[in-house]
Structure formats: structure tokens, C-alpha cells
């Protein structure tokens, strides 16, 4: 049993949850299932349409939630309310994880990050893809040098439109996952980006984006994200000098495609001086629910028992991700590459 799976030898964290919608209902379940956490209060001004409160009263706002006496809180309200709710929790001295993105703008996100840093509190952002088993194993193998030098990271995140999203477009909703996980896998921030977006569903916000960029360490990246595909796809491909790792984060599978080492006798092919196809391996990996791993990481970060691989996503990282996606939108609007 790993440290994150064991019960900490200390009182359970008194947890509050605000926002009982499509994501909040899952957080309620996972918090109740996580050792070392005790869900003591929930709040949502819109009520509890999924019936997740059980025997807890549904409180009207963040101030009523704070009055319940909390150690930590999970914020799962619409993005436009993240800043106000998080600032209230920081002022009350409550460790907090905010669902992604950290706020509706990078400027607002910086105010939130600054408030938690000034208060000496753990402030985290809920980028659950970092807890996907395929990506965790991918990052470990990259860090161990199994790909050698990394050349490129490419992501594809496509599927039907989610009716729950109304306040942001596909860039600030889905694409933030890809930006966050790419910088995390490469252990490098973004340096520049260029993007194209389109509006095809009649909504105010964009529903499709194609983006390219470069990280500070020289790795080139590209992201294809939309809400208009009838086929759901969540794929991350990291290509390096020794081959490529491909993560399917829907299934939690990770496959390695090695560069070929067998010399070819076919002259027409031999004149091509690139790599050839070698062996492929689909790894058998431990698959745990990412949302539960995310809450365990938040708990361990609060207690200071976390490791580099069990650390919650910091608010500073959340601000960087939001800065990058705003640069994507600026690039699409101005038809120019933008330095981050």
C-alpha cells in the first residue's frame, strides 16, 4: 500500500464543497471515499439537483460554508465565480482546491494565487488529467529518460458538446487540460503559441481550436481541441529520439512505439534517413480513479506528506496555464504568434 492510499495518522480534514453540479456531485462522492477527509458541509445557491448532500443541509453560499468550520474546501462553481469564492476562503484561512481553470482571467487567477500565498495556505487547481494513470506513467518514463531527448508533444481532445458548459469556450474549458499536462510532462513552461479558432455551433464562445507552440526548453507542441466531433478522443503523443509514447486517457492506456533497429535491405526505403518502425509495447499499469488520486494529493499537500509525484497542482501553475490559453485566444484574434 502506498502512502497516498494509507490513512494519515491525524484527524480527518473537515471538508466543505461548494457547487453541486456536474463536477461537484463527483467530488462529493470522492471526498467521502477518501481516507483522511470528512465532508461536513456543502453549498449551492441553485440547490442539490443530483441529491448528493444526503443528510447535510444545502447551504446558500460560501460564507455559510465557512461558518461550518472548515479545514479545507473544494470549489466546483462556474468559472466566473471562482475568484470571489476562492478569495473568501483564503480570507477565512481555508486550504482550497479550485476546479480548473483557476479563474475567468489570468489577472483574476493571479489575485487568487497571491491571496493564498500571502495567507500561507495550500491553494490548488483541479487539473485531474495529471492524475490519469496513463499520464502519470508517461511522465515517469519520460523523466527516467526512456524517450531520450523529447522533440514534440501533441494532444487531441475532441468530442460532442457538453451541455453543462455555458460561461467559457473550448479554449478555457478543455484546452486548459492540454496546456497544463504538456508543461507538466515536459517540466517546462510555454514560450510562444499560435492558434486558430472557429465558431460553428451558434454560441458566443469558440468551439474548436488548433494550436501550435514552443516550450522554453525547445520542445514543440500542438493541440487539437473541439466540441464538434461525434467521436470522443483523448490522446497525448510524446515523440523523442528513441520512439514515441502514446497515452489514451479515456481508457488509461499507455503504449510505447520504439524506433526500429533492424537495417532495411530495400534501397528505396533506405534512402529515407528518418527512423523506422520498431517494436511496440502496451504497458500494464495500475489504474485508479483520477479524481480520487487528485483528492489524495490535495490532502497530502495540506499535511506536507506529499512527494514530487503526489503534489497538488499549484495555483501558480494554474495562472501560467490560464496565461497560455489567453495567449491562444489573442493569437487567434490577431492572426499572429504570441509570446507567453
From TrEMBL:
UniProt keyword annotation of Calcium present: no
Location of the GFO/IDH/MocA-like oxidoreductase domain: 136-245
Name of this protein: Putative dehydrogenase
Record flagged with keyword NAD: yes
GO MF annotation terms: nucleotide binding
One Pfam match: GFO_IDH_MocA
Gfo/Idh/MocA-like oxidoreductase N-terminal domain: residues covered: 13-127
Keywords, sorted A to Z: NAD
Amino acid at each position: 500500500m502506498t502512502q497516498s492510499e494509507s490513512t494519515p495518522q491525524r484527524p480527518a480534514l473537515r471538508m466543505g464543497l461548494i457547487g453541486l453540479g456536474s463536477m461537484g456531485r463527483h467530488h462529493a462522492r470522492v471526498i467521502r471515499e477518501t481516507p483522511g477527509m470528512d465532508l461536513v458541509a456543502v453549498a449551492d445557491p441553485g440547490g442539490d439537483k443530483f441529491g448528493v448532500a444526503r443528510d447535510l443541509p444545502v447551504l446558500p453560499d460560501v460564507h455559510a460554508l465557512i461558518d461550518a468550520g472548515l479545514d479545507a474546501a473544494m470549489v466546483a462553481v462556474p468559472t466566473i465565480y471562482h475568484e470571489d469564492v476562492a478569495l473568501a476562503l483564503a480570507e477565512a484561512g481555508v486550504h482550497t482546491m479550485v476546479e480548473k481553470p483557476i479563474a475567468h482571467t489570468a489577472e483574476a487567477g493571479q489575485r487568487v494565487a497571491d491571496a493564498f500565498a500571502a495567507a500561507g495556505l495550500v491553494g490548488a487547481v483541479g487539473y485531474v488529467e495529471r492524475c490519469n494513470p496513463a499520464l502519470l506513467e508517461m511522465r515517469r518514463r519520460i523523466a527516467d529518460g526512456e524517450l531520450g531527448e523529447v522533440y514534440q508533444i501533441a494532444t487531441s481532445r475532441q468530442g460532442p458538446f457538453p451541455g453543462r458548459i455555458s460561461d467559457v469556450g473550448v479554449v478555457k474549458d478543455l484546452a486548459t487540460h492540454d496546456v497544463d499536462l504538456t508543461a507538466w510532462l515536459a517540466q517546462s513552461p510555454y514560450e510562444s503559441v499560435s492558434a486558430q479558432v472557429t465558431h460553428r455551433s451558434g454560441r458566443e464562445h469558440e468551439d474548436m481550436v488548433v494550436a501550435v507552440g514552443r516550450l522554453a526548453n525547445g520542445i514543440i507542441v500542438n493541440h487539437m481541441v473541439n466540441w464538434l466531433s461525434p467521436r470522443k478522443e483523448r490522446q497525448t503523443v510524446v515523440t523523442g529520439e528513441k520512439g514515441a509514447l502514446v497515452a489514451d486517457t479515456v481508457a488509461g492506456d499507455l503504449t510505447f512505439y520504439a524506433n526500429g533497429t533492424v537495417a532495411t535491405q530495400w534501397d528505396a526505403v533506405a534512402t529515407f534517413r528518418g527512423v523506422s518502425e520498431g517494436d511496440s509495447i502496451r504497458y500494464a499499469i495500475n489504474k485508479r480513479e483520477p479524481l480520487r488520486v487528485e483528492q489524495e494529493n490535495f490532502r497530502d499537500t495540506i499535511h506536507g506528506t506529499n512527494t514530487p509525484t503526489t503534489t497538488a497542482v499549484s495555483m501558480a501553475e494554474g495562472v501560467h496555464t490560464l496565461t497560455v490559453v489567453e495567449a491562444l485566444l489573442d493569437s487567434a484574434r490577431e492572426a499572429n504568434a504570441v509570446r507567453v
